[in-house]
Amino acid sequence: MALEIDLVFKIAAIGIIVAVLNQLLIRSGREDQAMMTTLAGLVVVLSILVKQISALFVTIKSLFSL
């Protein structure tokens, strides 16, 4: 249970940091860097989710002895 809540907090923290950086970069006139920051945050979150989905598939595979 703690791992699930920890994962949600990690993703939320990444989202908040990316949103703040995005706003700061847009207000300073660096829209290209703001877009790259947003894409980098998305890639980080997706990599975290892919690891968790992979672990889920391994658990399901071992549960059904496949």
Can you describe what's shown?
The protein is mostly helical. It has 2 helices and no strands. Helix 1 packs antiparallel against helix 2 (31-63). The mean pLDDT is 92.
The secondary-structure element order is HH
Task: Work out the strand percent.
Answer: under 5%
| Number of helical elements | 2
Average of per-residue pLDDT values: 92
* Largest sheet composition: none
Tell me the radius of gyration. Answer: 16 Å
Shape verdict? elongated
Helix content range: over 70%
- N/C terminus separation: 26 Å
Tell me the total number of β-strands: 0
Q: Which class best fits the helix and strand makeup?
A: mainly alpha
Write the layout of secondary structure elements.
Blueprint: H1 2-27, H2 31-63
Helix pairs in contact: 1-2
Structural features:
66 residues; single chain; elongated; mainly alpha
